[in-house]
Specification:
The protein contains 9 helices and 6 strands. By secondary structure, it is of the alpha+beta class. It has 2 domains: 152 residues, no CATH class; 66 residues. The protein is elongated and about 80 Å long.
C-alpha cells in the first residue's frame, strides 16, 4: 500500500503573501496543462495498493474455485483464467488511472521545482515567512507527500525541513507556496511545447509472473471437481486429505494429466475450507 495520505485541498489564506498559491493549486494547473481532460477527480485521487501479475492470477484462480464450489462442478464454457485475469487487470488500470495521472503531474511539478522554474516560499503557522527553501527537499524520498499534505514542512527556526507524516496545521510547521506568475508561465510552456522530462509510473507488467503456469485455474477446478466426487468415499479422520489427494492424483494420471500430490492436496485443502464455510 502506498504510504501517501489522502490528498487535501488547502484554501488560500488572507495572511499569505500576495501572489503565491499552495502546491495543490500548482499541481492542478500543471496537471491541466499536461492532460486536456484533467479533472478534480485526478486532483483528489488517493493512494492505491500496488498489484503484481501474480496478484491478478491468484485472484483469477480463487474466482474459478469459488465458482466451482458454488456450482458443484467446473463450467467449461465459462470465462477462462486468462480472461478473468485480463478483466481484473483492466479494472485495476481503470480504477488507478486518476492517481497515476496525478503522480505523473506531481513528478512534473518536482521536475520544474528542481530546475528552479517555480519560485517558492514557506509560510509558517506562526506567521513567519521563509524565503529560502532548500532544493534537496524536492529530491527527498517520499517528497510526493508534499502534494498530498498541503505542502506541509517542518520549520526549525529559519530552517525548512521535509519530514514524512506531517499534517497541515501541525505546530511548528509551514506551508510551501508557489509564485502564481511562475505557475502560469510553466503551465503555458507545457501546453505549447508538451515538454515533460519525467515518465509516468508504469502499469504492472502483464507478462507471466515468476513460477506462474497458464491454465492454473482450470487445473485447480478439475482437481476440485474430482475431489468432490471421491471425498465421501474416504473415511473421515487423520490423513483423509492426503488419501483423497492420492485417489484424485491417480484418476488424473489415468486421464493423461500428471500433478504432484502436494499440488493436488493444496487445491483440495482450499476447497475443503470453502465447503466447511458454506455448511456453517
Amino acid at each position: 500500500m502506498s504510504s501517501a495520505p489522502t490528498p487535501i485541498i488547502v484554501k488560500t489564506s488572507r495572511y499569505w503573501p500576495e501572489g503565491y498559491q499552495p502546491l495543490t493549486t500548482t499541481l492542478d494547473a500543471i496537471g491541466a496543462a499536461i492532460y486536456s481532460d484533467w479533472s478534480r477527480r485526478d486532483l483528489l485521487s488517493g493512494p492505491y495498493t500496488e498489484r503484481s501479475p501474480d496478484d491478478f492470477a491468484d485472484r483469477a484462480v480463487k474466482m474459478v474455485l469459488d465458482d466451482v464450489s458454488s456450482r458443484g462442478e467446473y463450467e467449461p464454457d465459462g470465462p477462462s483464467e486468462e480472461q478473468i485475469q485480463q478483466r481484473l487487470y483492466e479494472q485495476y488500470c481503470e480504477e488507478t488511472a486518476p492517481r497515476r495521472r496525478r503522480q505523473f503531474a506531481v513528478h512534473a511539478c518536482r521536475d520544474l521545482l528542481l530546475k528552479g522554474m517555480l519560485r517558492v516560499i514557506a509560510f509558517g503557522i506562526d506567521g513567519q515567512e521563509h524565503s529560502f527553501i532548500p532544493m534537496h527537499i524536492w529530491r527527498a524520498p517520499g517528497a510526493d507527500e508534499l502534494f498530498d499534505n498541503g505542502g506541509t514542512v517542518r520549520a526549525r527556526g529559519d530552517e525548512i525541513v521535509f519530514v514524512n507524516g506531517l499534517t497541515h496545521g501541525d505546530e511548528g510547521t509551514a506551508t510551501i507556496l508557489v509564485n502564481d506568475q511562475d505557475i502560469e508561465s510553466a503551465a503555458n510552456q507545457l501546453r505549447s511545447t508538451g515538454a515533460v522530462t519525467v515518465r509516468p509510473p508504469p502499469y504492472p507488467d502483464q507478462s507471466t509472473g515468476p513460477g506462474r503456469k497458464p491454465g492454473q485455474a482450470k487445473a485447480a477446478a478439475e482437481i476440485v471437481e474430482i475431489a468432490r466426487q471421491v471425498w465421501s468415499d474416504v473415511p473421515a479422520g487423520r490423513g483423509r486429505l492426503t488419501a483423497v489427494a492420492r485417489v484424485v492424483q491417480q484418476k488424473l494420471r489415468e486421464a493423461g494429466r500428471t500433478y504432484e500430490v502436494d499440488t493436488v492436496r493444496r487445491y483440495i485443502s482450499e476447497a475443503v475450507k470453502e465447503w466447511e464455510q458454506r455448511r456453517t
